[in-house]
Amino acid sequence: MDFFIKQRVFSFRDQFTVFDRKKKPVYKVDGKFFSIGDQLAITTSEGVPVLQIKQHVFSLMPRYSIANDEKELCVVSKKMSFFRARYEIEPLGWTIEGSLFDHHYAVKDGTTTIMTVEKEWLSWGDTYHLHVGDPRHETISVALMIVLDMVHHQKSKNHSAP
């Protein structure tokens, strides 16, 4: 299954729209305007809540939790590494590995690839191509891609500060 995630360019908060292959909106992602740390809600295009993403602000390395209305599903933690992006997703036992420079990531469960995400370079605003192998992992894959974008932009914000 292929999805295309487009970040809204002129917005005071993080906003994304997730499109299917036919360019039909499937999900919306909206960040809270005033919050300590990143907080985003993923809904269907009709507005039905799906997942929430919350940043753990008092953490040495970036950490985000992904939850539905009932419980926390996983915590994504960035791990120290040089030249490569590496994350752990607990308690699922998945990992995210990829390139910091060309924005290409893969989520794996051991040797099985759960999803891949790649940034589209010649587009207005951030646009990503997400490929999900199993439909059961569709929403969690969208959330993981959003977390990757948040971590990348958090790093950019921190480097641009004096």
TrEMBL record:
<dbReference type="InterPro" id="IPR007612">
    <property type="entry name" value="LOR"/>
</dbReference>
<dbReference type="InterPro" id="IPR038595">
    <property type="entry name" value="LOR_sf"/>
</dbReference>
<dbReference type="Pfam" id="PF04525">
    <property type="entry name" value="LOR"/>
</dbReference>
<dbReference type="InterPro" id="IPR025659">
    <property type="entry name" value="Tubby-like_C"/>
</dbReference>
<protein>
    <submittedName>
        <fullName>Tubby protein</fullName>
    </submittedName>
</protein>
<comment type="similarity">
    <text>Belongs to the LOR family.</text>
</comment>
